[in-house]
Amino acid sequence: MYKEITQARGKTNFASLTDEIGDACTYNTLCTVGQEAPKAALSAMKKFASEFEAHIKKNKCPAEVCTAFVHIYIDPHTCTGCGECMDVCPAECIEGKPNFIHMIDEFDCTKCGKCIEVCEEEAIVKTAGKLPKLPNRLIKVGKFKKH
Ligand code: SF4
Ligand code: SF4
Predict the structure, then answer these.
(1) Is any ligand 2 atom within 6 A of the Cβ of residue 82?
(2) Ligand 2 proximity of 104 Cβ (cutoff 6 Å)
(3) pLDDT given for residue 140 in this prediction
(4) Which residue is closest in CA terms to ligand 1's atom 6?
């Protein structure tokens, strides 16, 4: 269940199920390991309740750690079309050509962050929020309209 929560597949009953299964393990297991093991899951669910809620109900990872909730995009107003990002992308999911605004194919992007490191213009943005309007085809640098 925790793995599914980090993959944006969490369900609203996961908290109550964790309690139920955790309590059952704690009180019905004969060995000490079985009795102690659920405590980590139970205390995490209590101490970080708001984090779990954000993942499951708001589709957000407040710490921006779970990649399923994070977007990486190229700001069409800042990209200079230099191509540095394309050269380092191990997933080959950046499209572009010289002097054109580059684009990331989110479907294949593993969110490794290598493109962010090389972009001297700081045009590549990592966000847990909503995506802005982005080009859906290659457009010359400076020609992408804001609205
Ligand atoms: S995103 Fe950055 S590295 Fe990639 S083409 Fe644009 S300016 Fe160059
Ligand atoms: S985050 Fe990694 S996989 Fe995604 S576009 Fe950048 S370099 Fe490619």
Answers:
(1) no
(2) yes
(3) 97
(4) 79
Of 70, 64, 98, residue with least CA distance to 84: 98
Mutate-to-test residue for ligand 1 from 79, 97, 103, highest number of ligand atoms within 8 A of CB: 79
- The closest residue, in CA terms, to atom 4 on ligand 1 is 85
28-79 residue pLDDT tens: 999 999 899 899 989 998 999 999 999 999 988 888 889 889 899 999 999 9
Q: Range of 34's domain? A: 2-57
- The answer to whether position 134 is within a domain reads no
Let me know whether 122 and 84 are in one domain: yes
Model confidence over 106-131: pLDDT tens digits? 999 999 999 999 999 999 999 888 88
- For residue 64, what are its two tokens? 């921006």
pTM of the model: 0.74
Can you read off the two tokens belonging to residue 110?
A: 């593993």
| CA-proximal residue: ligand 1, atom 7 (nearest) | 79
Distances from the Cα of 16 to the Cαs of 7, 33, 34, 137, in angstroms? 19, 22, 19, 46
Give domain status of residue 9, yes or no. yes
CA-based end-to-end distance of the chain? 41
